[in-house]
Design brief:
The model has no long low-confidence stretch (mean pLDDT 92). The N and C termini lie far apart (86 Å). The protein is built from 25 helices and 15 strands. The longest helix has 25 residues. Among the domains are: 146 residues, Beta Polymerase, domain 2; 86 residues, Orthogonal Bundle (Hydrophobic Seed Protein), CATH 1.10.110; 49 residues, no CATH class. It is an alpha+beta fold. The protein binds adenosine-5'-triphosphate and magnesium ion. The site of adenosine-5'-triphosphate (ATP) has 10 residues, from strand 2 and helix 8.
């Protein structure tokens, strides 16, 4: 342990603290991760005194160029040293009044400070003071819980969760990230208090939710959210995927469980948060599009299109970015059946061309999602799908090589058409442009300017247009 503490930051800090006669401790996530051998560059320092003053002194002693960030309202300050981020705060005590979410915050001892923390594994500190440098302070048994792989609150869980309901999300988040169990009484308290998550801002909820999604195996975390009764509070659309309906002895699969498998499959192969979101939402419209047909049993016709329409409103409600990330998820949801449909029929060049044209640079992500979507329990079926899939991949490569269709623009533009026929922007221009694009995608004409111009003339003639004299 002392070797880690030999870092320049701790040495300088220890010296400064001795000079000022105040006590300093490293606390929270960094201490936990030290014992878990997870490398962390985020250091939280608690000062039994003013955190801001200590930060200012450190900033000067280290001779840092980058400005010290001071948050007066919170009594905290943050500095950056190499690739380390160090946050300073004065030790504090929090008391919550019934009926109010805002705690009363006062200066407190280190013990008070540890007591207000969320979990025992996050409520450990290491002294940086000369007399007992490197000593662990662990009043709630965080060490033991690290060994037992337990997420447990330092106080009565009903109190901890009710004081700040976000901690329920954090319990699931740490349990998922670290592959720990949530202590049983704690989990029961979460179930009792789940509804209180509703008073927490969506931004804070999403911070934790995205961390769950970015874990190695996020599926387990989502299942916990559902079992704890938290998921429905902020994401009822996802919760609605859960369950199985039976009619005339026919059951459909549980789409929530399926979605979690797809999510884990994608997560095995990609760290892209937004592709993980696409996995989460790919079947989101199944409840809304579910029908029972006498002839075919359960069907979900059009769920990809309906799902595509749901992505925007869901992102808006969850306070997720309404930018190209959202558009990417929309596109994945809309196209998620296309490769699999392809793999089930004879793979024609034109179908592959169309897919390349629509997916553009996102084709690799789409293929990944689509393969992850194969969760059938029937090994024969899985094998057949995967074989056909390989065929689609080969074909994609071939056509790509031949036609270079990614981010493709047809060889004749709207301007060309207007110029040739002497037109202003109008419906006919669009019709001709589409006809040329379709002819190329269908393979009726090659992807060449000369042939495209010929086709333009033919199409114009059909509509009674004549070339500009
Ligand atoms: P990571 O940075 O890897 O997400 P962390 O443990 O550092 O993990 P932070 O959210 O950075 O988590 O919080 C730092 C510390 O502050 C925690 O270890 C915990 O002691 C305390 N903490 C953070 N949020 C809360 C909260 N809502 N309630 C109580 N204590 C909290
Ligand atoms: Mg942290």
């Amino acid at each position: 342990m002392e070797t880690f503490l030999r870092h320049r930051i701790f040495e300088v800090l220890s010296g400064l603290a001795a000079g000022k006669g105040v006590k300093v401790y490293v606390i929270g996530g960094w201490v936990r991760d030290l014992f878990l051998k997870r490398e962390s560059k985020d250091i939280d320092i608690v000062v039994a005194g003013s955190g801001i003053e200590m930060a200012e002194a450190m900033h000067e002693a280290l001779g840092l160029k980058r400005k010290l960030q001071v948050f007066k309202n919170f009594g905290t300050a943050m500095l950056h040293y190499q690739d380390w981020q160090v946050e300073f705060v004065g030790a504090r005590k929090e008391s919550y009044r019934h009926g109010s979410r805002k705690p009363i915050v006062e200066d407190g001892s280190l013990e008070d400070d540890l007591k207000r923390r969320d979990f025992t594994i996050n409520a450990m500190a290491i002294s940086l003071n000369k007399e007992d440098f490197g000593t662990l302070i662990d009043p709630f048994g965080g060490q033991k819980d690290l060994v037992k792989k337990l997420v447990r609150t330092p106080l009565d869980p009903d109190v901890t969760y009710s004081d700040d309901p976000l901690r329920m999300m954090r319990a699931v988040r740490f349990s998922t990230q670290l592959d720990f169990q949530i202590h049983k009484p704690s989990f029961e308290a979460i179930r009792r208090n789940a509804g209180r998550l509703g008073i927490v801002s969506m931004e804070r909820i999403m911070d934790e939710f995205n961390k769950i999604l970015l874990a190695d195996k996020p599926g387990r975390g989502l299942l916990m959210l559902q079992e704890a009764g938290l998921l429905g509070v902020f994401f009822p659309e996802l919760e609605a995927l859960s369950g199985v309906e039976v009619k005339h002895g026919k059951a459909h699969k549980d789409n929530f469980i399926h979605t979690l498998k797809v999510l884990d499959n994608v997560s095995d192969r990609s760290d892209n948060l937004w592709l993980r979101w696409a996995a989460l939402l790919h079947d989101i419209a199944k409840p809304a599009s579910k029908r029972y047909e006498e002839a075919n049993g359960w069907t979900f016709h059009g769920h990809e299109y309906l799902g595509y329409k749901m992505v925007g409103p869901i992102f808006r409600k969850l306070k997720l970015p309404m930018n190209e990330k959202m558009k990417f998820v929309q596109k994945m949801v809309l196209l998620h059946l296309r490769p699999i449909v392809l793999s089930q029929s004879i793979v024609t060049d034109s179908a592959v061309r169309r897919l390349l044209f629509e997916a553009g640079d996102d084709i690799d992500d789409l293929m990944l999602l689509c393969e992850a979507d194969i969760t059938s329990g029937n090994p024969e079926k899985v094998k057949r799908y995967l074989n056909n899939f390989e065929l689609v991949r080969q074909k994609l490569e071939e056509i790509e090589e031949k036609d270079r269709l990614r981010n493709w623009q047809p060889p004749v533009t709207g301007e060309d058409i207007m110029e040739y026929f002497g037109l202003k922007p109008c419906r006919e221009v669009g019709v001709i442009k589409t006809a040329i694009r379709e002819a190329i995608l269908d393979g009726h004409i090659p992807n060449q300017r000369q042939e495209a111009l010929e086709r333009m003339k033919e199409e114009g003639k059909k509509m009674g247009l004549t070339p500009k004299p």
